[in-house]
Amino acid sequence: xxxSRLLAVAAxxxxxxxxxxxxxxxxxSADAGPADGSGAQQDSATGSDGxxxxxxxxxxxxxxxxxxxxxxxxxxxxxxxxxxxxxxKDTLGIDDKTRAAIPIKHVIVMMKENRGFDHLLGMxxxxxxPDIEAIPAGFxxxxxxxxxxxxxxxxxxCIGYDPGHxxxxxxxxxxxxxxxxxxxxxxxxxxTDGHFALGYYDQxxxxxxYFIANHYPIDDRHFASVRSGTYPNRNFLLLGTADGVTxxxxxxxxxxxxxxxxxxxxxxxxxxxxxxxxxxxxxxxxMPGHANTGTFSDFLAKLDDGSLPQVAFIDGLDNxxxxxxxxxxxxxxxxxxxxxxxxxxxxxxxxxxxLWTYDEAGGFFDHVPxxxxxxxxxxxxxxxxxxxxLGVRIPMIVISPYARAGYVxxxxxxxxxxxxxxxxxxxxxxxxxxxxxxDALLDMFDFDCPPAFLTPPAAAPAAGTGGCDxxxxxxxxxxxxxxxxxxxxxxxxxxxxxxxxxxxxxADSALGPSPPTPGSLAYQFIGGTHTxxxxxxxxxxxxxxxxxxQQPWPLPAGGYVAYYLLNNGYIDVAxxxxxxx
Length: 581
Hints:
It contains 14 helices and 21 strands. The chain is an alpha/beta fold. The chain has three domains: 3-133 and 198-444, 3-Layer(aba) Sandwich (Alkaline Phosphatase, subunit A), CATH 3.40.720; 141-197, no CATH class; 473-580, Immunoglobulin-like, CATH 2.60.40. It is globular, with a radius of gyration of 25 Å. The N and C termini lie far apart (70 Å).
């Protein structure tokens, strides 16, 4: 970027970021409490749309990273002044020339599933980011028996339960801002004691996630748009409104409601949505083959050859790489790393903004009360009346050459800040009052200086391994059995937290063992029967006539593999082979 262009973009930074001081440190506090939320909600400690502590010292373009200046329109957005159709030059104070100088050419939205900030990244305060508020020492929830439970280091990256996370459950978890209903809600919705909802992870579990969170800017006051599940939250991202959808699976938005995709089509902005599972989280009911969609491989190929659309939405495979329980999060971490490695190696990297967040917290804990005030998307529209609260806090990280290095933002925001960023880059009008009054993530960028991450940080670590019960061991009573002879499979080191873990038997041929998929030849749950019962840490199951699956008993002569599989699914953590003769 030329010096003259950088100076032009300096005006952009001045207009959009938070409360700065002459030495480059903003007045936002890492101890900021719950915010008085609005479309681009105010930071509760500063009363401004201000960011966190910057690393710069000096003034303006003479110092890099540059200071984070004040935002003169923050109070108007906090008052929900702006409405449908508002342009960023009116809501963010950016003139057309300055907006056009933004060097971002491709936006990638990677919205994963169902993990709260404290649950996923709760140790950042002590593992590289002291400006991020730590989990308070006194934070706790009581279980149904009244026992006090405090946050604890989770022992598995494959939690075997999917706690309730729709409208009623989420409101019970927040409990009017007390943030003390996570365990009881999880207990009611999973039939367990619910303690797992207060588990957290650290850098040893997710080395790559923590690497990204330690290098690139992160917002520690990013909340879900709705105190509910996937569909209404993703609707806000894509439509600027939930359009009356209160929970996942109940309904879809009205097809006539304008979407971000419609706005991009009108403006001639190219876009694509990619997944091997649900496209854009399933919220629009798009099926494979829908216009402008493709697979994960399609996404990587376009990223590699430079043909990626200007805006791309990428989603993981449901319950496998999207981090949604009961997925192995380390597998999702590896998938995310794959995207990152392709992005930084792409010839498109100099103009990429990769936005990593989660649609909602999934019933897992966080200690920061979400705002109870947010701009009504379409005032006067009955569909929007009840959508005035934000949901539980979630991670939000900007990965880009122009990302503000070493920065923690405390700007209170929700998913339409992503929507507004796309509208800012491509000069699109606001879909509703919600995105019209949102900030656009711009304090997390530094367009006033040469890109800090044009050469990305070296040596990104591999994703974690072994967290998904890597200690499980399988053995068989004999390497060879006669046809019709019962086969005994012993296991040890199991997590002991899910009676739906099971032993599945598949064919093993000269070409290698068949991977675990629906249609096992025989199976037993780890409690020892065809019905889930108990969850021992060690034990033995017998594969006999009571274990018949797709293959009638007895198993014919041939080679076989037995897998230890998690939570009635197909994530395998151990295997052993045997032969029937």
